[in-house]
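User: Please predict the structure of the protein below. I'd like the answer in structure-token form so I can feed it into my own downstream comparison script.

Assistant: Understood. Taking the following sequence of 460 residues as input:
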Amino acid sequence: MTFLQKWIEPKRPIPPERQRYDDRALFRLTLPIIAEQLLAVLVGIADTLMVSYAGEAAVSGVSLVNQLCTVVIFVFSAMAAGGAVIASQYVGRGDRKNGRLAAGQLVLSVTVIAAALTAFTLLFGRPVFLALFGPVEPAVYDAGMVYLRINAFSFIPLGLYNACAGLYRSMGRTRAVMNVSIVMNGINVVGNAIGVFGLHAGVAGVAWPTFISRTFAAAAMLCLLAGRENELRFRLRDALRPEWKMLRRIFHVALPNALENGLFQLAKVALSAIVSTFGTVQIAANGVAQSFWSVAALFSSAMGPAYITVVGQYMGAGDVEGADYYMKKLTRITYLGGAVWNAAFFAVTPLLLQLYDLSGETVSLIILLCGLHNFFCTLFSPAAFALSSGLRAAGDIRFNLFAALFSTVVCRVVLSVILGLWLRMGVVGITLAMAGDWAVKAALVAVRYKGGKWKRFKLI
């Protein structure tokens, strides 16, 4: 056994015959998820990079609207995670009939919700933008509204892609999702280059490729999920009418998760309203830094689906001891991998910033924000986000919601007002408040896990 294996192996392992995922299987499960999510956030950086050549007003407008669009993305991710928790437990139990029904009902519910969000955004996007961000510069407002309206059309394919990808991961088939993601993001990046540099379409030049790439990904994942060999095979008849008992199971997990993630992102949107008062330099620095933060936090966030797949299957099979073993092992992997990832990415951050057409003052501020973020992300993110996914996979749903409400809505917002406004620390204060949010949630999750109450929940 190598030193690395000794470090990640819990002190009390379960017998090898009960280990569904050995070290190689965990590697094959998690690596495609990390690669997939890395591609997704790199596209966000590519969007910001290419838009920067249209001016800092365009960067600011896109960064503000991305706060709103990320709320929608988080809702879909929460729905997918909710369906994946239920589906992974059916996989662990070997119940194909209910697993396939869960797949169809998840696709149905996501489609309906996405259609409603699209209509709402197209009808009320302008007043919501003005209410949240106030009287920003006219150029910032114009860029933001163009980006928001075009993005609204991609909500339905985005929701379908997330749902199908979550179901595919529940079966442990993460490589296929990664392959679709590679093509999807390739379409997006090439489209961005054509739209910005070839057609000189500015903000619209990065928005339309997003729609096209997401539509492709949704169609590809639906086709893959319809394969006869799948334990969670998608069948159209399972998605044509609601099955309320199954929907209640899915929404029992998905709604608190969606509310948790939605409130987390809405708090960020509200804080963006504060950031919008700090001037164009700080708005632009915050927008670019958040793209970099997404990459830095990627390892911990990518491990969340791995917890859902592995812990969900063990809980579905009734093997609580096995679920606990993998909770420990995955947490050790997350801390080690997260530390290496954050350090490595911060080392290349100054080099990447040379690609941007930004002022020296903006670049210096971005480096400071990234340094603070990566340090605190290493300390708190594995427990606050990855381990909490394990609790969710076990059925401990409400706790995650209440922990998020307290840490994000109370601690983060209050600290942001104190540090960012009252002490006039600007976006640096907002970043430190974010770290305080993570610290509180990490402590709450760690105490909950040690208490063991999560072992007694039943979802199916």
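That's the full token string. The chain has one domain: 18-456.
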